[in-house]
Amino acid sequence: MRSLDLTPLYRASVGFDRLADLMDRVLTADVAAPTYPPYNIEKTGENSYRISIAVAGFSADDLNVEMRDGAVIVSARKADEDEGRTYLHRGIATRAFERRFTLADHVRVEGASHVDGMLHIDLLREVPEALKPRRIEIAKGARTVTQLDS
User: Fold this and answer.
1) pTM for this prediction
2) Is 64 found in the same domain as 40?
3) Interatomic CA distance for residues 4 and 10, integer angstroms
């Protein structure tokens, strides 16, 4: 397994803790990451995204979506309804799961919907006005900095 020492990043920067933690988490992630349930992440607009998760066999009441610590956490737990049933083949997995999606700064959850066995989570990136590019007017012929007399 590869290891990356992020100590120089911590020594030479301020406020990048979240980025360093994300890099550390990605680099130390287990290669055999869980693949259940399958999901898609799509870009639906310039600042909008959608996470779609295949949740066949789960009702909306069995699913939980929450935003915590800069991540969307989707979990599901199915009530045990198999008592008295005998399956000849069981191919639809309804086992409990928890799936975490780390969000970038200024991305928030707009809403979630459960349609045709798919859970859709809509995300929106809202860049604050202070971070948006703005045009600075250039004054002609006037001094922009006043000098103080000492």
Assistant:
1) 0.69
2) yes
3) 13
